[in-house]
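Exercise 7. Given the encoded structure of a 203-residue chain, write a plausible sequence.
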């Protein structure tokens, strides 16, 4: 039937998209093993980017009836950053959150400007946290979660060939920031990205 054909075409497109994404991740890891990730910084409205990511997450989560809870400030400083690569970071973390959260669960997205502490005192960062109510990650796996090709032993947390979070860490580091994770098995996980708030003059 025509409906069956449409479903087959849609499934094929999804699989092709996944394969292209995997190939791009492999190429990114290969390049960054031999040289630094190349950024194309420009004036970036991070709040606008976050709003777009929230909408994309709401669309992704419809089939599972997830509760997407954004908590974004009314304003964030205009920054100099590579918007496409930061979008990749955010959507990777958000798509993982949607993937691993069971139906009717919650995905929360929060952002705030924070002041650096200790050796980072005097610096400002934009902190973006993404929290899911998924199965969580065992404590013994947390130190290795961002390693390339590392997969979780938890069935629900099988991450393909384990490249996505490695790319997240490398892109974030290339911006002078960092990414961390807190998790509790049976409760959920929070991934936090810290990006220096390198403001555009006049913002």
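Solution.
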């Amino acid at each position: 039937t025509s409906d069956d054909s449409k479903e087959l075409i849609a499934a094929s497109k999804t699989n092709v998209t996944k394969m292209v994404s995997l190939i791009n991740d492999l190429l990114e890891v290969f390049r960054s093993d031999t040289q630094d990730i190349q950024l194309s910084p420009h004036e970036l409205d991070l709040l606008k980017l976050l709003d777009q990511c929230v909408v994309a997450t709401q669309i992704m989560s419809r089939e599972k009836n997830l509760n997407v809870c954004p908590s974004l400030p009314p304003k964030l400083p205009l920054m100099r950053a590579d918007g496409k690569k930061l979008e990749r970071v955010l959507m990777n973390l958000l798509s993982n959150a949607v993937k691993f959260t069971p139906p009717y669960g919650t995905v929360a997205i929060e952002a705030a400007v924070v002041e650096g502490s200790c050796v980072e005192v005097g610096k400002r960062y934009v902190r973006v946290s993404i929290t899911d109510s998924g199965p969580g990650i065992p404590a013994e796996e947390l130190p290795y979660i961002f390693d390339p090709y590392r997969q979780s032993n938890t069935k629900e947390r099988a991450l393909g060939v384990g490249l996505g979070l490695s790319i997240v860490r490398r892109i974030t580091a290339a911006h002078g920031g960092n990414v961390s994770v807190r998790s509790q098995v049976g409760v959920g996980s929070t991934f936090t990205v810290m990006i220096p708030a390198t403001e555009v003059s006049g913002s």
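Remark. The longest strand covers residues 106-115. Students should compare their own answers with the one above.
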